[in-house]
Each structure stands twice: as C-alpha cells, then as structure tokens.
Automatic annotation (TrEMBL):
InterPro entries: Uncharacterised_YueH. It comes from Jeotgalibacillus campisalis. This is YueH-like protein. Pfam families: YueH (PF14166).
Length: 79
C-alpha cells in the first residue's frame, strides 16, 4: 500500500493506494472524505479521471475533486 498526500489550497488529504497485482485492480481511499474507489488496470486513462472526479464531487467541491482525481490518475498510471 502506498500513502500519498494531496494538497489543494490549504487542505491536505492522505490518499491510500493499494494495488492487487493478482486481480489486476487498484483500490484508492481517502478516509477524511469517507470516499473510496476500486478499478482495474483496463480502466486506467482519461475516462477514469472523469469518473473519479464525478464521485469525488459528492464529498468535496468541484475544484478539489478535479485536483484529486488528476493526481490519483497520475499516481496509479505510474504503478
């Protein structure tokens, strides 16, 4: 499991990323927002960023949701 920090404005959020290589999936969680998402390697890409942003907007504002979604996409593509 990897733990990253996402800083947006003056807010810092811990992002937990777990990669399950056997099942080719990734689980991402942000406990401070009571938010999590699971997706497969096949889902990686621009569509994933949009899906993450939409679900994050339910728990935070649009600007922060976009920033976090972009960072999660970048971090998971590097794995």
């Amino acid at each position: 499991m990897k733990i990253r920090k996402s800083i947006s404005g003056s807010t810092e959020r811990k992002v937990f990323i777990h990669e399950n290589k056997k099942e080719e999936s990734i689980l991402v969680a942000i406990p401070a927002l009571f938010w999590s998402a699971e997706f497969t390697y096949d889902d990686l890409g621009k569509e994933l960023t949009n899906k993450l942003e939409k679900t994050l907007q339910k728990t935070t504002d649009a600007q922060e949701a976009g920033d976090i979604a972009q960072r999660i996409s970048q971090w998971t593509n590097e794995m």
